[in-house]
């Protein structure tokens, strides 16, 4: 009698029976519920910027928000809200990842799309890191640093 390979059969069954969680697609990383909540908050912040929705942006960020904007300008919440109209076009979050430690999370990612920002003109792809804190109302953005990808990095596929 030949030995039965139980472990490989079980692994195959587990692979077939595994469902992709809601919000994830096959081949995409699976996230915990909290990671998904942070990533959704991050996406909502970008949507508020795209829609020039000062109220939504205000609700999604803490009062002491700080943003290191492209070009090196350090902005507080009021400055960011005042500048919402300077971004024209469409930006999308891609390659996002959330790391959570206690009530603090960082989100890293890339923004790209067909957009321009006054007075800089067309925006290249940009990498960012954002800090979120858990509050009674959910995850709120505390800070974000954004840097445009350098041309050489784009050419080499590094950004």
From TrEMBL:
Record's keyword terms, sorted: Signal
InterPro entries associated with the record: DUF4440, NTF2-like_dom_sf
Keyword Flavoprotein applies: no
Domain DUF4440: 39-141
Entry protein name: Nuclear transport factor 2 family protein
Signal peptide start and end residues: 1-22
Pfam families the record matches: DUF4440
């Amino acid at each position: 009698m030949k030995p039965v390979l139980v472990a490989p059969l079980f692994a195959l069954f587990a692979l077939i029976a595994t469902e992709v969680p809601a919000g994830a697609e096959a081949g995409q990383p699976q996230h915990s519920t909290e990671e998904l909540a942070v990533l959704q908050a991050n996406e909502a912040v970008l949507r508020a910027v795209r829609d020039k929705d000062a109220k939504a942006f205000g609700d999604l960020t803490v009062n002491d928000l700080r943003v290191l904007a492209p070009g090196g300008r350090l902005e507080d919440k009021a400055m960011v809200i005042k500048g919402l109209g300077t971004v024209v076009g469409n930006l999308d979050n891609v390659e996002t990842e959330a790391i959570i430690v206690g009530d603090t999370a960082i989100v890293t990612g890339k923004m790209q799309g067909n957009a321009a920002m006054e007075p800089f003109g067309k925006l290249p792809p940009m990498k960012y890191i954002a800090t979120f804190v858990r509050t009674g109302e959910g995850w709120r953005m505390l800070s974000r640093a954004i840097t445009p990808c350098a041309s050489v990095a784009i050419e080499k596929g590094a950004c």
